[in-house]
Amino acid sequence: MSELLTESSVTGESLQALHRELDFYTVEGQRIVVPAIHMKNWGDSSFAEMHGLRYSYMAGSMAHGISSVALVKAMAIEGFLGSFGAAGLGLHAVARAIDELQRDLGEQTFAVNFIHTPGEPLIEERLCDLLIQKNVRLVEASAFMRITKALVRYRVKGLQKASDGRIVSPRRIIAKVSRTELAKLFWAPAPLAILDALLSEGVIDSKEHAIAQTVPLANDLTVEADSGGHTDNRPLVTLLPQMLLLKNEMEAAYRYQEPLRVGAAGGIATPHAALAALSMGASYLVTGTVNQACQEAGTSDDVRKMLAETQQSDLIMAPAADMFEMGVKLQVLKRGTMFPMRAQKLYELYRAYPDIDSLPDKDRKILEDTYFRMSLETAWQETKRFFAERDPTQITLAEKNPKHKMALVFRSYLGQSSHWANRGQSDRKIDYQVWCGPAMAAFNDWARGSVLETVSERKAGYVGLNLLYGSAILHRIRSLQFQGLKRPEWEALAKPMAEAKLRSLLENGRHG
Ligand SMILES: Cc1cc2nc3c(=O)[nH]c(=O)nc-3n(C[C@H](O)[C@H](O)[C@H](O)COP(=O)(O)O)c2cc1C
Protein backbone atom coordinates (compact mmCIF):
# COMPACT_ATOMS: atom_id res chain seq x y z
CA MET A 1 0.00 0.00 0.00
CA SER A 2 1.49 3.32 -1.02
CA GLU A 3 1.96 5.94 1.55
CA LEU A 4 1.37 9.52 0.65
CA LEU A 5 4.01 12.02 1.73
CA THR A 6 4.12 15.63 0.74
CA GLU A 7 7.19 17.72 -0.01
CA SER A 8 5.66 20.83 1.39
CA SER A 9 4.62 20.15 4.93
CA VAL A 10 0.87 20.37 4.91
CA THR A 11 -0.27 21.71 8.21
CA GLY A 12 -3.89 22.60 7.62
CA GLU A 13 -6.56 21.53 5.24
CA SER A 14 -6.67 24.78 3.34
CA LEU A 15 -7.33 24.47 -0.35
CA GLN A 16 -3.95 25.96 -1.04
CA ALA A 17 -2.28 23.23 0.95
CA LEU A 18 -4.31 20.59 -0.81
CA HIS A 19 -3.29 22.08 -4.12
CA ARG A 20 0.36 21.86 -3.09
CA GLU A 21 -0.14 18.25 -2.22
CA LEU A 22 -1.32 17.53 -5.71
CA ASP A 23 1.67 19.31 -7.17
CA PHE A 24 4.38 17.73 -5.03
CA TYR A 25 4.19 14.34 -3.57
CA THR A 26 6.40 11.34 -3.19
CA VAL A 27 5.56 7.72 -2.71
CA GLU A 28 8.10 5.45 -1.08
CA GLY A 29 10.75 8.07 -1.64
CA GLN A 30 9.90 8.55 -5.31
CA ARG A 31 8.40 11.70 -6.70
CA ILE A 32 5.38 10.83 -8.83
CA VAL A 33 4.37 13.31 -11.42
CA VAL A 34 0.85 13.68 -12.70
CA PRO A 35 1.29 16.63 -14.98
CA ALA A 36 -1.07 19.54 -14.71
CA ILE A 37 -3.36 19.57 -17.70
CA HIS A 38 -3.39 22.69 -19.72
CA MET A 39 -6.97 23.60 -20.28
CA LYS A 40 -6.19 24.67 -23.81
CA ASN A 41 -5.30 21.06 -24.62
CA TRP A 42 -8.36 19.75 -22.85
CA GLY A 43 -10.47 17.95 -25.43
CA ASP A 44 -9.11 18.20 -28.95
CA SER A 45 -7.14 21.40 -29.43
CA SER A 46 -7.79 21.22 -33.18
CA PHE A 47 -11.36 22.31 -32.42
CA ALA A 48 -10.09 25.46 -30.72
CA GLU A 49 -7.52 26.02 -33.47
CA MET A 50 -10.00 25.67 -36.31
CA HIS A 51 -12.42 28.12 -34.77
CA GLY A 52 -9.89 30.55 -33.34
CA LEU A 53 -10.66 29.83 -29.67
CA ARG A 54 -8.54 29.42 -26.57
CA TYR A 55 -10.54 26.51 -25.15
CA SER A 56 -12.66 23.74 -26.70
CA TYR A 57 -15.73 24.87 -24.84
CA MET A 58 -18.97 26.11 -26.32
CA ALA A 59 -22.19 27.63 -25.00
CA GLY A 60 -24.92 26.16 -27.20
CA SER A 61 -27.68 28.26 -28.73
CA MET A 62 -30.72 29.02 -26.61
CA ALA A 63 -33.82 30.15 -28.48
CA HIS A 64 -35.38 33.61 -28.38
CA GLY A 65 -32.07 35.23 -27.65
CA ILE A 66 -31.67 33.51 -24.27
CA SER A 67 -28.19 32.94 -25.67
CA SER A 68 -28.03 36.70 -25.85
CA VAL A 69 -25.48 39.00 -27.45
CA ALA A 70 -24.13 39.57 -23.92
CA LEU A 71 -23.76 35.82 -23.34
CA VAL A 72 -21.99 35.26 -26.66
CA LYS A 73 -19.63 38.14 -25.91
CA ALA A 74 -18.94 36.80 -22.42
CA MET A 75 -17.92 33.51 -24.02
CA ALA A 76 -15.68 35.18 -26.58
CA ILE A 77 -13.88 37.19 -23.88
CA GLU A 78 -12.75 33.93 -22.24
CA GLY A 79 -11.75 32.36 -25.56
CA PHE A 80 -14.83 30.12 -25.56
CA LEU A 81 -17.40 29.83 -28.35
CA GLY A 82 -20.92 31.19 -27.94
CA SER A 83 -23.80 30.63 -30.34
CA PHE A 84 -26.46 33.31 -30.58
CA GLY A 85 -29.98 31.98 -29.90
CA ALA A 86 -31.62 33.00 -33.17
CA ALA A 87 -34.43 30.42 -33.09
CA GLY A 88 -37.86 31.99 -32.77
CA LEU A 89 -36.58 35.52 -33.41
CA GLY A 90 -37.54 37.68 -36.37
CA LEU A 91 -34.90 38.29 -39.04
CA HIS A 92 -34.48 41.93 -37.99
CA ALA A 93 -33.62 40.94 -34.45
CA VAL A 94 -31.10 38.37 -35.70
CA ALA A 95 -29.56 40.94 -38.05
CA ARG A 96 -29.20 43.46 -35.20
CA ALA A 97 -27.53 40.85 -32.99
CA ILE A 98 -25.08 39.90 -35.75
CA ASP A 99 -24.21 43.56 -36.35
CA GLU A 100 -23.53 44.10 -32.66
CA LEU A 101 -21.45 40.95 -32.34
CA GLN A 102 -19.38 41.76 -35.40
CA ARG A 103 -18.84 45.34 -34.25
CA ASP A 104 -17.78 44.37 -30.72
CA LEU A 105 -15.95 41.12 -31.34
CA GLY A 106 -14.07 42.02 -34.51
CA GLU A 107 -12.26 38.91 -35.67
CA GLN A 108 -13.21 36.83 -32.62
CA THR A 109 -15.37 33.85 -33.46
CA PHE A 110 -19.02 33.48 -32.64
CA ALA A 111 -21.77 31.31 -34.05
CA VAL A 112 -25.45 31.80 -34.83
CA ASN A 113 -28.08 29.11 -34.50
CA PHE A 114 -29.36 27.74 -37.82
CA ILE A 115 -32.45 25.91 -36.67
CA HIS A 116 -34.47 23.58 -38.87
CA THR A 117 -38.04 24.76 -39.36
CA PRO A 118 -39.94 21.78 -40.78
CA GLY A 119 -42.80 22.79 -43.05
CA GLU A 120 -41.53 26.38 -43.26
CA PRO A 121 -38.63 26.26 -45.75
CA LEU A 122 -38.92 30.00 -46.43
CA ILE A 123 -37.69 30.78 -42.93
CA GLU A 124 -34.52 28.76 -43.47
CA GLU A 125 -33.97 30.34 -46.90
CA ARG A 126 -34.24 33.86 -45.48
CA LEU A 127 -31.97 33.03 -42.58
CA CYS A 128 -29.44 31.59 -45.03
CA ASP A 129 -29.60 34.79 -47.13
CA LEU A 130 -28.97 36.89 -44.05
CA LEU A 131 -26.07 34.77 -42.78
CA ILE A 132 -24.34 34.84 -46.16
CA GLN A 133 -25.00 38.53 -46.65
CA LYS A 134 -23.59 39.34 -43.19
CA ASN A 135 -20.67 37.02 -43.69
CA VAL A 136 -21.40 34.90 -40.61
CA ARG A 137 -18.75 32.22 -40.76
CA LEU A 138 -20.04 29.69 -38.25
CA VAL A 139 -23.47 28.29 -37.38
CA GLU A 140 -24.76 25.74 -34.94
CA ALA A 141 -27.21 23.69 -37.02
CA SER A 142 -29.82 21.96 -34.93
CA ALA A 143 -33.18 20.16 -34.98
CA PHE A 144 -32.51 18.88 -38.53
CA MET A 145 -34.23 15.64 -39.41
CA ARG A 146 -33.12 15.83 -43.02
CA ILE A 147 -30.65 18.01 -44.88
CA THR A 148 -32.25 21.06 -46.47
CA LYS A 149 -31.33 23.17 -49.46
CA ALA A 150 -30.85 26.29 -47.36
CA LEU A 151 -28.35 24.59 -45.08
CA VAL A 152 -26.41 23.15 -48.03
CA ARG A 153 -26.32 26.56 -49.72
CA TYR A 154 -24.88 28.08 -46.52
CA ARG A 155 -22.10 25.51 -46.42
CA VAL A 156 -21.10 25.19 -50.07
CA LYS A 157 -21.48 28.67 -51.54
CA GLY A 158 -17.99 30.09 -51.88
CA LEU A 159 -16.05 26.82 -51.40
CA GLN A 160 -12.67 27.12 -53.13
CA LYS A 161 -9.51 25.16 -53.73
CA ALA A 162 -6.23 26.94 -53.01
CA SER A 163 -3.25 26.51 -55.36
CA ASP A 164 -1.76 23.90 -52.98
CA GLY A 165 -4.94 21.82 -53.22
CA ARG A 166 -6.22 22.82 -49.79
CA ILE A 167 -9.98 23.37 -49.64
CA VAL A 168 -10.97 26.75 -48.27
CA SER A 169 -14.34 26.87 -46.50
CA PRO A 170 -15.73 30.35 -46.03
CA ARG A 171 -18.48 29.07 -43.76
CA ARG A 172 -18.69 26.14 -41.41
CA ILE A 173 -21.36 24.19 -39.60
CA ILE A 174 -21.27 22.71 -36.12
CA ALA A 175 -24.11 20.21 -36.26
CA LYS A 176 -26.01 19.10 -33.21
CA VAL A 177 -27.84 15.76 -33.22
CA SER A 178 -28.95 13.01 -30.88
CA ARG A 179 -29.06 10.12 -33.34
CA THR A 180 -26.41 8.30 -35.30
CA GLU A 181 -28.47 8.23 -38.52
CA LEU A 182 -28.54 12.04 -38.48
CA ALA A 183 -24.85 12.20 -37.68
CA LYS A 184 -24.20 10.20 -40.85
CA LEU A 185 -25.98 12.86 -42.91
CA PHE A 186 -23.83 15.65 -41.50
CA TRP A 187 -20.53 13.80 -41.74
CA ALA A 188 -21.22 12.97 -45.39
CA PRO A 189 -20.89 15.49 -48.21
CA ALA A 190 -24.08 17.41 -49.03
CA PRO A 191 -26.68 15.23 -50.81
CA LEU A 192 -25.98 15.15 -54.56
CA ALA A 193 -29.63 15.80 -55.46
CA ILE A 194 -29.52 19.10 -53.55
CA LEU A 195 -26.17 20.06 -55.09
CA ASP A 196 -27.54 19.29 -58.56
CA ALA A 197 -30.62 21.43 -57.91
CA LEU A 198 -28.49 24.35 -56.66
CA LEU A 199 -26.28 24.01 -59.74
CA SER A 200 -29.16 23.92 -62.19
CA GLU A 201 -30.73 26.96 -60.51
CA GLY A 202 -27.44 28.81 -60.91
CA VAL A 203 -27.05 29.27 -57.15
CA ILE A 204 -23.67 27.53 -57.11
CA ASP A 205 -21.17 27.03 -59.93
CA SER A 206 -19.62 23.80 -61.16
CA LYS A 207 -16.45 24.28 -59.06
CA GLU A 208 -18.47 24.67 -55.86
CA HIS A 209 -20.57 21.68 -56.95
CA ALA A 210 -17.43 19.55 -57.35
CA ILE A 211 -15.64 20.66 -54.17
CA ALA A 212 -18.81 20.19 -52.13
CA GLN A 213 -18.60 16.46 -52.87
CA THR A 214 -15.24 16.23 -51.14
CA VAL A 215 -16.05 17.94 -47.83
CA PRO A 216 -18.46 16.93 -45.08
CA LEU A 217 -21.42 19.14 -44.41
CA ALA A 218 -20.03 19.50 -40.89
CA ASN A 219 -16.66 18.50 -39.47
CA ASP A 220 -17.83 19.19 -35.93
CA LEU A 221 -20.80 17.35 -34.63
CA THR A 222 -22.18 17.76 -31.14
CA VAL A 223 -23.90 14.74 -29.70
CA GLU A 224 -26.68 15.95 -27.49
CA ALA A 225 -27.71 13.65 -24.69
CA ASP A 226 -30.44 14.34 -22.11
CA SER A 227 -30.61 18.13 -22.10
CA GLY A 228 -32.83 21.12 -21.54
CA GLY A 229 -35.34 21.83 -24.32
CA HIS A 230 -35.56 19.44 -27.29
CA THR A 231 -34.07 16.11 -26.31
CA ASP A 232 -34.36 12.39 -26.93
CA ASN A 233 -33.36 11.94 -23.24
CA ARG A 234 -30.51 9.60 -24.21
CA PRO A 235 -27.66 9.07 -21.71
CA LEU A 236 -24.33 10.54 -22.75
CA VAL A 237 -22.45 7.44 -21.59
CA THR A 238 -24.07 5.35 -24.28
CA LEU A 239 -24.53 7.87 -27.07
CA LEU A 240 -21.06 9.39 -27.06
CA PRO A 241 -19.17 6.11 -27.63
CA GLN A 242 -21.51 5.24 -30.50
CA MET A 243 -20.83 8.61 -32.15
CA LEU A 244 -17.08 8.22 -31.66
CA LEU A 245 -17.16 4.85 -33.38
CA LEU A 246 -19.25 6.24 -36.20
CA LYS A 247 -16.87 9.15 -36.62
CA ASN A 248 -13.97 6.73 -37.14
CA GLU A 249 -15.98 4.83 -39.74
CA MET A 250 -16.91 8.00 -41.60
CA GLU A 251 -13.32 9.25 -41.57
CA ALA A 252 -12.12 5.95 -42.98
CA ALA A 253 -14.82 5.95 -45.63
CA TYR A 254 -14.40 9.53 -46.85
CA ARG A 255 -10.75 10.43 -46.13
CA TYR A 256 -11.45 14.14 -45.91
CA GLN A 257 -8.67 16.72 -45.74
CA GLU A 258 -9.73 17.83 -42.27
CA PRO A 259 -10.58 15.72 -39.22
CA LEU A 260 -14.07 15.07 -37.93
CA ARG A 261 -14.79 15.76 -34.29
CA VAL A 262 -17.45 14.88 -31.73
CA GLY A 263 -18.55 17.36 -29.10
CA ALA A 264 -20.54 16.42 -26.00
CA ALA A 265 -23.68 18.15 -24.80
CA GLY A 266 -26.37 17.25 -22.32
CA GLY A 267 -25.88 17.17 -18.60
CA ILE A 268 -22.57 18.97 -18.53
CA ALA A 269 -22.63 21.38 -15.63
CA THR A 270 -20.11 19.87 -13.21
CA PRO A 271 -16.39 19.17 -13.51
CA HIS A 272 -17.23 15.50 -13.05
CA ALA A 273 -19.46 15.43 -16.14
CA ALA A 274 -16.96 17.50 -18.12
CA LEU A 275 -14.13 15.11 -17.21
CA ALA A 276 -16.26 12.07 -18.06
CA ALA A 277 -17.11 13.41 -21.53
CA LEU A 278 -13.54 14.44 -22.31
CA SER A 279 -12.14 11.16 -21.01
CA MET A 280 -14.51 9.23 -23.24
CA GLY A 281 -13.13 11.11 -26.20
CA ALA A 282 -15.23 14.22 -26.73
CA SER A 283 -13.27 16.86 -28.62
CA TYR A 284 -15.19 19.74 -27.10
CA LEU A 285 -17.87 20.45 -24.52
CA VAL A 286 -21.20 22.17 -25.04
CA THR A 287 -23.26 23.55 -22.17
CA GLY A 288 -26.78 24.95 -22.27
CA THR A 289 -29.03 24.85 -19.25
CA VAL A 290 -26.38 26.13 -16.88
CA ASN A 291 -25.83 29.23 -19.02
CA GLN A 292 -29.50 30.08 -18.84
CA ALA A 293 -29.04 30.43 -15.09
CA CYS A 294 -26.29 33.01 -15.62
CA GLN A 295 -26.57 36.77 -15.50
CA GLU A 296 -25.88 37.35 -19.20
CA ALA A 297 -28.70 35.06 -20.38
CA GLY A 298 -31.61 36.83 -22.07
CA THR A 299 -34.11 35.73 -19.49
CA SER A 300 -35.64 37.13 -16.32
CA ASP A 301 -34.48 37.12 -12.72
CA ASP A 302 -37.64 35.13 -11.93
CA VAL A 303 -36.36 32.33 -14.15
CA ARG A 304 -32.81 32.50 -12.79
CA LYS A 305 -34.24 32.14 -9.29
CA MET A 306 -36.43 29.17 -10.30
CA LEU A 307 -33.39 27.52 -11.91
CA ALA A 308 -31.30 28.05 -8.78
CA GLU A 309 -33.86 26.05 -6.82
CA THR A 310 -34.17 23.23 -9.35
CA GLN A 311 -33.70 19.63 -8.28
CA GLN A 312 -33.72 16.41 -10.30
CA SER A 313 -37.41 15.73 -9.70
CA ASP A 314 -38.48 19.18 -10.94
CA LEU A 315 -38.30 18.37 -14.65
CA ILE A 316 -40.83 16.98 -17.11
CA MET A 317 -41.34 16.54 -20.85
CA ALA A 318 -44.00 18.85 -22.35
CA PRO A 319 -45.28 19.51 -25.90
CA ALA A 320 -43.04 21.70 -28.03
CA ALA A 321 -44.40 24.78 -29.82
CA ASP A 322 -42.39 24.30 -33.00
CA MET A 323 -43.23 20.64 -33.61
CA PHE A 324 -46.52 20.56 -31.75
CA GLU A 325 -48.54 18.72 -34.39
CA MET A 326 -45.96 15.91 -34.54
CA GLY A 327 -46.23 15.34 -30.81
CA VAL A 328 -42.62 16.32 -30.19
CA LYS A 329 -41.84 17.10 -26.57
CA LEU A 330 -39.14 19.04 -24.80
CA GLN A 331 -37.74 19.11 -21.29
CA VAL A 332 -38.98 21.91 -19.06
CA LEU A 333 -39.29 22.92 -15.44
CA LYS A 334 -42.47 21.77 -13.74
CA ARG A 335 -41.83 23.27 -10.33
CA GLY A 336 -43.59 26.62 -9.84
CA THR A 337 -45.47 26.63 -13.17
CA MET A 338 -48.58 25.06 -14.72
CA PHE A 339 -47.14 25.26 -18.22
CA PRO A 340 -46.38 21.55 -18.74
CA MET A 341 -49.87 20.52 -17.69
CA ARG A 342 -51.59 23.19 -19.80
CA ALA A 343 -49.46 22.47 -22.87
CA GLN A 344 -50.31 18.78 -22.56
CA LYS A 345 -54.03 19.58 -22.32
CA LEU A 346 -53.80 21.65 -25.51
CA TYR A 347 -52.08 18.78 -27.28
CA GLU A 348 -54.79 16.33 -26.17
CA LEU A 349 -57.54 18.67 -27.40
CA TYR A 350 -55.71 19.10 -30.70
CA ARG A 351 -55.57 15.32 -31.14
CA ALA A 352 -59.19 14.78 -30.15
CA TYR A 353 -61.01 17.42 -32.22
CA PRO A 354 -60.97 18.45 -35.88
CA ASP A 355 -61.19 22.20 -35.27
CA ILE A 356 -61.71 24.96 -32.71
CA ASP A 357 -65.47 25.07 -33.26
CA SER A 358 -65.80 21.43 -32.17
CA LEU A 359 -64.19 21.96 -28.76
CA PRO A 360 -66.57 21.14 -25.88
CA ASP A 361 -67.93 24.28 -24.18
CA LYS A 362 -66.32 23.47 -20.87
CA ASP A 363 -62.87 23.09 -22.41
CA ARG A 364 -63.28 26.20 -24.53
CA LYS A 365 -64.21 28.15 -21.38
CA ILE A 366 -61.11 26.94 -19.51
CA LEU A 367 -58.90 27.88 -22.44
CA GLU A 368 -60.46 31.31 -22.85
CA ASP A 369 -60.58 32.14 -19.12
CA THR A 370 -57.25 30.78 -17.92
CA TYR A 371 -54.86 29.84 -20.74
CA PHE A 372 -55.44 32.55 -23.33
CA ARG A 373 -57.32 35.08 -21.19
CA MET A 374 -59.20 36.14 -24.33
CA SER A 375 -61.68 34.58 -26.74
CA LEU A 376 -60.26 31.98 -29.10
CA GLU A 377 -61.41 34.18 -31.99
CA THR A 378 -59.25 37.06 -30.66
CA ALA A 379 -56.39 34.61 -30.14
CA TRP A 380 -56.70 33.63 -33.84
CA GLN A 381 -56.60 37.29 -34.92
CA GLU A 382 -53.41 37.79 -32.89
CA THR A 383 -51.90 34.60 -34.28
CA LYS A 384 -52.62 35.87 -37.78
CA ARG A 385 -50.83 39.14 -37.05
CA PHE A 386 -47.79 37.16 -35.87
CA PHE A 387 -47.65 35.01 -39.00
CA ALA A 388 -48.28 37.94 -41.36
CA GLU A 389 -44.67 38.96 -40.70
CA ARG A 390 -43.09 35.57 -40.07
CA ASP A 391 -44.61 33.33 -42.74
CA PRO A 392 -47.90 34.40 -44.40
CA THR A 393 -48.27 31.03 -46.14
CA GLN A 394 -49.28 29.63 -42.75
CA ILE A 395 -52.36 31.88 -42.69
CA THR A 396 -53.44 30.71 -46.14
CA LEU A 397 -52.96 27.11 -45.06
CA ALA A 398 -54.91 27.64 -41.84
CA GLU A 399 -57.79 29.28 -43.65
CA LYS A 400 -58.11 26.19 -45.82
CA ASN A 401 -57.49 23.70 -43.04
CA PRO A 402 -59.28 24.29 -39.70
CA LYS A 403 -57.15 21.69 -37.88
CA HIS A 404 -54.05 23.64 -38.87
CA LYS A 405 -55.72 26.82 -37.62
CA MET A 406 -56.32 25.13 -34.25
CA ALA A 407 -52.65 24.10 -34.14
CA LEU A 408 -51.46 27.64 -34.83
CA VAL A 409 -53.68 29.11 -32.11
CA PHE A 410 -52.64 26.49 -29.56
CA ARG A 411 -49.01 26.95 -30.53
CA SER A 412 -49.39 30.65 -29.84
CA TYR A 413 -49.95 29.87 -26.15
CA LEU A 414 -46.86 27.67 -26.10
CA GLY A 415 -44.82 30.31 -27.88
CA GLN A 416 -45.92 33.15 -25.64
CA SER A 417 -45.32 31.18 -22.46
CA SER A 418 -41.57 31.30 -23.24
CA HIS A 419 -41.74 35.07 -23.73
CA TRP A 420 -43.58 35.54 -20.44
CA ALA A 421 -40.81 33.65 -18.69
CA ASN A 422 -38.01 35.47 -20.51
CA ARG A 423 -39.57 38.84 -19.76
CA GLY A 424 -40.48 37.90 -16.19
CA GLN A 425 -44.12 38.86 -16.71
CA SER A 426 -45.33 38.31 -13.15
CA ASP A 427 -49.08 38.05 -13.93
CA ARG A 428 -48.17 35.07 -16.15
CA LYS A 429 -45.80 33.33 -13.76
CA ILE A 430 -48.15 30.37 -13.60
CA ASP A 431 -47.63 29.89 -17.37
CA TYR A 432 -43.84 30.25 -17.56
CA GLN A 433 -42.24 27.82 -19.99
CA VAL A 434 -38.65 27.27 -18.89
CA TRP A 435 -36.49 24.82 -20.80
CA CYS A 436 -34.23 23.04 -18.41
CA GLY A 437 -32.27 19.80 -18.20
CA PRO A 438 -31.01 17.71 -15.29
CA ALA A 439 -27.69 19.53 -15.62
CA MET A 440 -29.26 22.32 -13.59
CA ALA A 441 -29.85 20.16 -10.55
CA ALA A 442 -26.32 18.78 -10.73
CA PHE A 443 -24.90 22.29 -11.01
CA ASN A 444 -26.92 23.50 -8.02
CA ASP A 445 -25.59 20.67 -5.87
CA TRP A 446 -22.01 21.30 -7.00
CA ALA A 447 -22.35 25.03 -6.39
CA ARG A 448 -23.95 24.68 -2.95
CA GLY A 449 -21.88 26.33 -0.26
CA SER A 450 -19.69 28.12 -2.81
CA VAL A 451 -19.79 31.57 -4.34
CA LEU A 452 -21.72 30.17 -7.32
CA GLU A 453 -24.67 29.36 -5.09
CA THR A 454 -25.54 33.05 -5.29
CA VAL A 455 -27.59 33.75 -8.41
CA SER A 456 -25.99 37.15 -9.02
CA GLU A 457 -22.51 35.54 -9.08
CA ARG A 458 -23.39 33.14 -11.88
CA LYS A 459 -21.60 34.56 -14.89
CA ALA A 460 -21.25 32.32 -17.92
CA GLY A 461 -17.54 32.82 -18.56
CA TYR A 462 -16.64 32.33 -14.92
CA VAL A 463 -18.85 29.22 -14.71
CA GLY A 464 -17.17 27.78 -17.82
CA LEU A 465 -13.68 28.40 -16.47
CA ASN A 466 -14.63 26.77 -13.18
CA LEU A 467 -16.00 23.72 -14.98
CA LEU A 468 -12.84 23.29 -17.04
CA TYR A 469 -10.52 24.01 -14.16
CA GLY A 470 -12.41 21.67 -11.85
CA SER A 471 -12.30 18.91 -14.46
CA ALA A 472 -8.54 19.36 -14.91
CA ILE A 473 -8.03 19.07 -11.16
CA LEU A 474 -10.31 16.05 -10.99
CA HIS A 475 -8.33 14.41 -13.76
CA ARG A 476 -5.19 14.64 -11.64
CA ILE A 477 -7.00 13.37 -8.58
CA ARG A 478 -8.30 10.36 -10.50
CA SER A 479 -4.87 9.67 -11.97
CA LEU A 480 -3.49 9.48 -8.45
CA GLN A 481 -6.40 7.39 -7.28
CA PHE A 482 -5.78 4.87 -10.05
CA GLN A 483 -2.21 4.58 -8.82
CA GLY A 484 -3.51 3.69 -5.39
CA LEU A 485 -3.22 7.16 -3.91
CA LYS A 486 -6.38 8.45 -2.42
CA ARG A 487 -7.26 11.33 -0.24
CA PRO A 488 -10.96 12.19 0.07
CA GLU A 489 -10.07 15.77 0.97
CA TRP A 490 -8.77 16.34 -2.56
CA GLU A 491 -12.32 16.17 -3.94
CA ALA A 492 -12.93 19.61 -2.43
CA LEU A 493 -10.52 21.04 -4.96
CA ALA A 494 -13.12 20.49 -7.67
CA LYS A 495 -15.62 22.81 -5.96
CA PRO A 496 -16.22 26.21 -7.57
CA MET A 497 -13.45 28.64 -6.82
CA ALA A 498 -13.72 32.37 -6.17
CA GLU A 499 -13.29 34.30 -9.39
CA ALA A 500 -10.22 36.35 -8.48
CA LYS A 501 -8.44 33.26 -7.15
CA LEU A 502 -9.29 31.21 -10.22
CA ARG A 503 -8.13 33.88 -12.61
CA SER A 504 -4.87 34.39 -10.76
CA LEU A 505 -4.20 30.63 -10.82
CA LEU A 506 -4.85 30.54 -14.55
CA GLU A 507 -2.71 33.59 -15.20
CA ASN A 508 0.11 32.01 -13.24
CA GLY A 509 0.09 29.08 -15.58
CA ARG A 510 -1.69 26.49 -13.48
CA HIS A 511 -3.78 24.53 -15.95
CA GLY A 512 -4.30 27.76 -17.94
C1 LIG B 1 -33.41 27.40 -22.52
C2 LIG B 1 -32.78 26.58 -23.59
C3 LIG B 1 -33.02 26.91 -24.91
C4 LIG B 1 -32.40 26.18 -25.92
N1 LIG B 1 -32.62 26.54 -27.21
C5 LIG B 1 -31.94 25.93 -28.21
C6 LIG B 1 -32.04 26.40 -29.54
O1 LIG B 1 -32.79 27.31 -29.84
N2 LIG B 1 -31.28 25.80 -30.48
C7 LIG B 1 -30.42 24.78 -30.17
O2 LIG B 1 -29.72 24.29 -31.03
N3 LIG B 1 -30.33 24.30 -28.92
C8 LIG B 1 -31.05 24.87 -27.93
N4 LIG B 1 -30.90 24.43 -26.64
C9 LIG B 1 -29.94 23.35 -26.36
C10 LIG B 1 -28.58 23.92 -25.94
O3 LIG B 1 -27.97 24.64 -26.97
C11 LIG B 1 -27.62 22.80 -25.52
O4 LIG B 1 -27.35 21.96 -26.61
C12 LIG B 1 -28.18 21.96 -24.39
O5 LIG B 1 -28.84 22.78 -23.46
C13 LIG B 1 -27.06 21.22 -23.69
O6 LIG B 1 -27.56 20.39 -22.70
P1 LIG B 1 -27.80 20.86 -21.16
O7 LIG B 1 -29.08 21.61 -21.17
O8 LIG B 1 -27.89 19.60 -20.41
O9 LIG B 1 -26.63 21.72 -20.79
C14 LIG B 1 -31.55 25.10 -25.61
C15 LIG B 1 -31.36 24.76 -24.27
C16 LIG B 1 -31.96 25.48 -23.28
C17 LIG B 1 -31.73 25.10 -21.85
- The CATH homologous superfamily name of the largest domain equals Aldolase class I
Beta-strand level of the residues, as a percent range?
Answer: 5-15%
CATH topology of the largest domain: TIM Barrel
Task: Give the radius of gyration.
Answer: 25 Å
Mean of residue pLDDT values: 93
What does this structure look like?
- The protein is an alpha/beta fold and 512 residues long.
- It folds into 3 domains: 4-37 and 439-507, no CATH class; 40-289, TIM Barrel (Alpha-Beta Barrel), CATH 3.20.20; 314-431, no CATH class.
- Helix content is 46%, strand content 12%.
- It is built from 21 helices and 16 strands.
- The chain has helices at residues 15-23, 45-51, 69-78, 91-105, 121-133, 149-156, 180-187, 192-200, 206-212, 236-254, 271-280, 289-292, 301-308, 339-352, 361-371, 376-390, 393-400, 402-423, 439-447, 460-481, 499-507; strands spanning 4-6, 25-27, 30-31, 57-59, 81-84, 111-115, 138-142, 160-161, 167-168, 172-177, 220-224, 229-230, 261-265, 284-287, 315-319, 329-333.
- The strands form 4 sheets. It has an 8-stranded parallel beta barrel with strand order 4-5-6-7-10-11-13-14, surrounded by 7 helices.
- Helix 3 packs parallel to helix 4 (91-105), helix 3 (69-78) packs across helix 20 and helix 11 (271-280) packs across helix 20.
- The relative contact order is 0.12.
- Residues 60-63, 66, 85, 87, 113, 115, 140, 142, 176, 224, 227-229, 265-268, 286-290, 292, 435-437, 439 line the site of flavin mononucleotide.
